[in-house]
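To the wet lab folks,

You asked to see what we're planning to order before we commit. Fair enough. Below is the target structure as tokens, and below that is the sequence we designed to fit it. If anything looks off to you, flag it before the synthesis order goes out.
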């Protein structure tokens, strides 16, 4: 393709993007295709000679688009959002155009230095400890794995990195029964094992109970096991429960255990001073992760990972073959040593665009809007006799179920599963579920960049109309 052809199609693509966002509400939020439906429309073999962009874009519209779930639709209420914004899209386009592989300072000084600056901006606006140092990682899962590996190496004076496991290590990883699956996955990958991931019990707000953590640690020590790391959730995935950071952090200090805080979703709330009380004790953390790629209007992937001791992080990951040595290794950040991959995209650019274009007050306004809309939904649910809210709502995730009278728990579970399915099949809204205390729970997040009152009203209307069509198996 020649530059002039690219220019023409790029203009067309940008028009497509702007149209897409203007017309997004015309699409079913959740893709309605059946398994295999897309695959069978794609030729089994690569074409021998090149095809025109017109043909390719036509297939993009006709074959691919029906199989897309529209995460940027304002009635997207599932999982947690993966928000974009227009400034972020512009940043991503330019990052793609530069095509720079920013593994070390030398391979694009601006990428390394902008990343450092953006992590400092985030630290300041979120009021995180100023001595922490941050880097951009791909996902919270990677960052948590980094934390587990760093804890492992610090505990063994970097011996497992060097000599491998000796067979006498008996490490234990602690998190609550509500924390994200990435913790168990990290324990598996780090050679610690899912069987050594201790799921500590929670209180009625689904937050980890410090006394149960202490008990688990003491029992493990008595049994000759080595407590390695405690991972607290600031905003669990199930219900945005807030583990008590101060109490958990103090236990970690007492026993010399690495303290990692997973605020993957809820970290964005720290941009609001009135929500910072959930962050109390965060200064006790050895490492902290949150995802601007969830609720902070920045395209996936963009995870911010902060550590108290950069030295431990770098010693865990550093490897310096001759061909990667440069003149400035002592004075600059070479982010290849801050995590698992060598290669790195220029992800700080979109974050810079977003933070500058929206400004702190612009972001705060949207976030406060989400909180207000959420409280509106909470009020509607509370005022209705047939709904039950199943967890506290500290932020903008509401966990609830439909609970008409005269049904037992099994029937209620069945009924609510039907409700989620029928609402999602309708295509107008998209929500997901979880289980809390064995109860089938509807999860509704009001956090999409463009969600407004009318979308919450629509959600409510659809919810009510679908409850009347359910056929309980009695
Ligand atoms: C979403 C989430 C994760 C995983 O995030 P990825 O960036 O997709 O790895 C981890 N922990 C919590 C609490 C989350 O909400």
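Sequence we intend to order:
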């Amino acid at each position: 393709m020649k530059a002039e052809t690219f220019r023409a199609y790029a203009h067309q693509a940008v028009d497509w993007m702007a149209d897409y966002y203007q017309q997004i509400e015309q699409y079913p939020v959740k893709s309605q295709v059946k398994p295999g439906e897309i695959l069978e429309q794609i030729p089994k073999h690569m074409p021998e000679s090149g095809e025109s962009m017109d043909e390719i874009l036509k297939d993009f519209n006709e074959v691919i688009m029906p199989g897309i779930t529209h995460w940027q639709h304002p009635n997207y209420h599932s999982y947690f959002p993966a928000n974009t914004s227009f400034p972020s899209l512009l940043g991503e386009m330019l990052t793609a155009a530069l095509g720079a592989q920013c593994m070390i300072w030398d391979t694009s000084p601006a990428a390394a230095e902008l990343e450092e600056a953006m992590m400092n901006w985030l630290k300041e606006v979120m009021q995180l400890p100023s001595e922490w140092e941050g880097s951009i990682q791909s996902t919270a899962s990677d960052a948590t794995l980094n934390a587990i590996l760093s804890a492992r190496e610090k505990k063994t004076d970097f011996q497992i990195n060097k000599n491998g496991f000796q067979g006498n290590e008996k490490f234990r990883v602690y998190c609550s029964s509500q924390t994200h699956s990435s913790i168990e996955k990290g324990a598996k990958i780090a050679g610690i094992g899912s069987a050594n991931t201790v799921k500590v019990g929670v209180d009625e707000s689904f937050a980890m109970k410090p006394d149960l953590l202490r008990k688990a640690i003491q029992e493990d020590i008595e049994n000759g096991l080595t407590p390695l790391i405690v991972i607290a959730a600031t905003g669990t995935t199930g219900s945005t429960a807030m583990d008590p950071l101060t109490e958990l952090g103090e236990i970690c200090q007492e026993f010399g255990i690495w303290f990692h805080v997973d605020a993957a979703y809820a970290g964005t709330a720290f941009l609001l001073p009135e929500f910072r009380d959930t962050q109390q004790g965060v200064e006790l953390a050895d490492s902290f992760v949150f995802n601007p790629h969830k609720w902070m209007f920045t395209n996936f992937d963009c995870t911010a990972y902060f550590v108290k001791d950069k030295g431990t992080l770098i010693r865990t990951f550093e490897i310096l073959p001759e061909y990667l040595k440069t003149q400035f290794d002592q004075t600059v950040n070479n982010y290849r040593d801050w995590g698992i991959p060598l290669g790195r995209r220029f992800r700080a650019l979109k974050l810079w665009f977003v933070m500058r274009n929206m400004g702190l007050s612009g972001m705060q306004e949207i976030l406060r809007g989400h909180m207000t809309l959420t409280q509106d939904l909470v009020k509607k649910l509370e005022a209705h006799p047939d709904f039950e809210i199943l967890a506290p709502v500290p932020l903008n995730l509401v966990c609830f179920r439909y609970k008409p009278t005269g049904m037992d728990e099994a029937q209620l579970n069945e009924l609510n599963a039907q409700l989620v399915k029928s609402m999602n099949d309708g295509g107008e809204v998209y929500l997901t579920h979880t289980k809390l205390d064995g109860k089938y729970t509807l999860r509704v997040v009001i956090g999409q960049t463009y969600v407004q009152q009318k979308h919450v009203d629509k959600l409510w209307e659809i919810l009510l109309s679908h409850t009347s069509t359910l056929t309980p198996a009695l």
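Structural context that might help your review: The mean pLDDT is 95. The chain is about 40% helix and 10% strand.

Thanks,
Computational group
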